[in-house]
Structures are given as C-alpha cells and as structure tokens.
Design a protein that fits this description.
The complex is a heterodimer of chains A (109) and B (267).
Chain A (H helix, E strand, L loop, with lengths): L5 H13 L4 E10 L9 E5 L4 E3 L7 H14 L4 E6 L15 E9 L1
Antiparallel strand pairs in A: 1-2, 1-5, 2-3, 4-5
Chain B lengths: L4 H10 L4 E8 L6 E5 L2 E5 L4 H17 L3 E5 L7 H5 L4 E8 L4 E5 L3 H12 L3 E6 L15 E4 L2 H8 L8 E4 L4 H13 L4 E4 L3 H13 L4 H4 L2 E2 L11 H17 L15
Parallel strand pairs in B: 6-7, 6-9, 7-8, 9-10, 10-11
Antiparallel strand pairs in B: 1-2, 1-5, 2-3, 4-5
The chains are: A alpha+beta (109), B alpha/beta (267).
Chain lengths: 109, 267
C-alpha cells in the first residue's frame, strides 16, 4: 500500500513511546465513493505535532493533526471523524475526489 | 490500543505473522481492542465476552481471506438481523495484516471472467494467464489485477515460490499443451488449491498424460478435477461459485452439505 499503513508507522511509534511522547493514531475505517486510500491507511501525530504516515493523499491530513492535538490536550475518548462532501459536521474539509472518508482516531496509551 | 495490544501487534507485523486488529469504532466500549492470530489465543477484549468471542471468530475468517472490513454486531455479539433490530449496533473495524490470497487462473476463456469476478468478491489478488495474445487482454478481464501473456512455466517462475496454503491455481484451458505444464508448475509450488476444468473423460485422459510425464500418485491427489463442487452448475457464473465454494470447503475441511442437513457448529 505504501505511504502509511500501521506497518510503516511502527518505527516512529516505538521511538515516540520510548521517548514518553503521547500520540494519536488515525486509521481509515471506511470510504464512500472514490477515496484516495483504502481502509487501513494510517497516520500518527505526537504531542509535539510531529506527523508520520498519511490517510488521503494530502486533503485531510491538516485537519487530522488539529483534531489529534485537541484530543491529546483534552484527553478525549477514541472517536470516528468523517471528511467529505456529505459531511455536515464541523470539519470544513473535503476530498478533492469527492469521496467521503471515515477515520478512527485513538490515543495510543 | 493499549500497552498490551500495541507491542504484540508490532511484534507480529514485523515477524510477518498474520494477525488481525479488531477495534470497536462505535458502541458502548468504543476504542476497545482485540488482537487475533491463528496461532495465539485472542489478546484483549471488546468489553463483552460474547461479543469478543464472535468478533474474534469473524476476524480469523477475515484474516484467512486477507480482508479488512467493518462489521456490525449487537452489544452482546448478536449477528442476526432479528437480534440486531432491538439493540443499538456495535461497529467493529477488523484490519488484517496479511497479504491477500492469490488466485492464478490459466486460460483466458468465458469461465475465467466469471471466476475472476467471484475471486475478487472473496478478496483474492487475481492473475489471468494465457499464451494467446488475442485472448489475454485487459479489455476482456478488467477485474484481474494482473494479466500475463505467457506459458505456464514463465508464470510459475514469476509467482510459484510465493504461493502458499491460502492461494489457489485454477486451470481452465481445456488444452493439454497448456494444462499439463500448468498442473506440473502448480504441483511444484506449495499452493493450497489446484483445480482443473474438464469433463470426466478429459480428466481421465489428462491423468494418463500426467502419469506419462512422471507425476506421482501423491501429487495427483492434490489436483481437484473435474473442478468445483457438485451443485449442478452450468453457466460460467454458476461454475465460478462452484469453484470458489470448493476452495473454501477444502480450506475449512468441510464436506459441503446444506447446513439444514447437518447438526454441528456452523463455523
């Protein structure tokens, strides 16, 4: 798959864990319409804002980083966030391909 | 994902041990995580024992097929629509860390197209191989992941070493100059399923040829021919179902009767 699956995040996740850095993993758990990445595509964000992996080819990564940092700050529970044209939530971010992408964000504790 | 599941997931992925990561993405225990592999007891919990048991079982099935998917259950692992109707659903994401199984289909015929479609439905990576340039075309097999204009020897030189228990070779050519080397190539690999199309008469003649070229009786026993389960399939599409059903039944070791005629556990 390349470019960001759990397999490719492991080295960075281990490095962060060993350094005591908190981090959030975001994984694609669903796609509707044309999506750039299949379920399983993953990225991770640590408390310093360092980012590895990707979930969309660049369309939503910025919003995922902001959301992940909020989650770490507020110690929020794991949740699904949705990006795309059918999205009526607060995320004013879409995929250029017109698809909808569902991401599961969870802190790696 | 917690500090018990994550390190073990990382270890199994790095060791190329097939494993599936199961996480509740919506429901009473959102974030609860389970790790399953064929060779280990399940690690973690989804918050309810029965849900954990049912999801672990399904995840092993997805892992065997190399699939990643989302499934809905009742809060106690219920799976039937009747049981789910009264309960809020628990959405579970199952991610398989394993290469998808590979089906190599020899012969670019009508049956190939239907079989390739059925194989894609089951999550296979599909290679279609035929030596005839006019038949082995992308236009005829848009669903195939890979189309090889090649003789069987070349196809097995490329893919033979990577074939394993969850992979399949289906030989649909009906042409001995192609069938025999394809069967020999498949037998030299560790592929889990070898099926060859042809009438019983064709099969009998082919057996003679294979014996002539030195194929041993033990090896011949690996070859499923005529191909497919006896469900009375006639069309290419029905035949594709019959072949895929045989592959599943061989993998699970089942006798493939109707469930209504048997009494044991379904899974």
């Amino acid at each position: 798959m390349g470019g960001g699956s759990m397999r490719e995040l492991l080295d960075d996740l281990d490095r962060w864990r060993n350094a005591g850095k908190r981090c959030v993993i975001g994984r694609v758990v669903g796609i509707e319409g044309s999506g750039p990445r299949d379920p399983g595509a993953a990225m991770a964000v640590n408390e310093d804002g360092e980012v590895v992996g990707s979930v969309s080819g660049g369309c939503v990564e910025g919003a995922v980083v902001a959301e992940a940092l909020d989650m770490l700050r507020e110690q929020s529970a794991a949740k699904v966030v949705t990006f795309g044209y059918s999205d009526d939530e607060a995320f004013a971010v879409g995929l250029t391909c017109g698809g909808t992408i569902h991401l599961f964000l969870q802190e790696l504790s | 994902m917690n500090n018990v599941v994550y390190p073990e997931l990382a270890r199994r992925i790095r060791a190329n041990e097939p494993t599936a990561l199961v996480v509740v993405v919506d429901g009473p225990h959102t974030g609860a995580t389970l790790l399953v592999s064929p060779d280990h007891p399940a690690l973690g919990t989804l918050g309810d024992d029965e849900l954990t048991r049912v999801a672990a079982r399904d995840a092993l099935g997805e892992l065997e097929a190399g699939r990643t998917s989302t499934r809905n259950y009742g809060p106690r692992g219920q799976i039937t629509p009747e049981d789910l109707a009264d309960s809020p659903a628990v959405r579970v994401f199952i991610e398989s860390f394993a290469p998808p199984p590979h089906m190599m289909i020899f012969g670019a015929v009508d049956f190939t197209s239907a079989l390739a479609r059925a194989a894609k439905l089951l999550g296979y990576r599909v290679t279609v191989c035929d030596a005839r340039t006019v038949f082995a075309t992308r236009r005829r097999f848009p669903m195939a992941d890979d189309i090889m204009v090649a003789w069987p020897d070349e196809a097995f030189t490329k893919h033979g070493a990577s074939l394993g228990a969850s992979d399949a070779v289906c030989i649909l050519t009906h042409d001995p100059k192609f069938d025999v080397p394809a069967i020999q190539g498949a037998l030299r690999s560790s592929v889990g399923y070898i099926g060859v199309m042809g009438s019983r008469k064709t099969h009998a003649k082919r057996l003679e040829r294979l014996v002539e070229v030195g194929v041993s009786p033990v090896d011949l026993a690996r070859v499923m021919s005529p191909i497919g389960l006896d469900i009375g399939a006639r069309t290419p599409e029905e035949t594709a179902i019959s072949i895929c059903a045989e592959i599943i039944a061989r993998r699970t070791g089942r006798a493939a009767q109707s469930l209504s005629a048997t009494t044991g556990a379904i899974h």
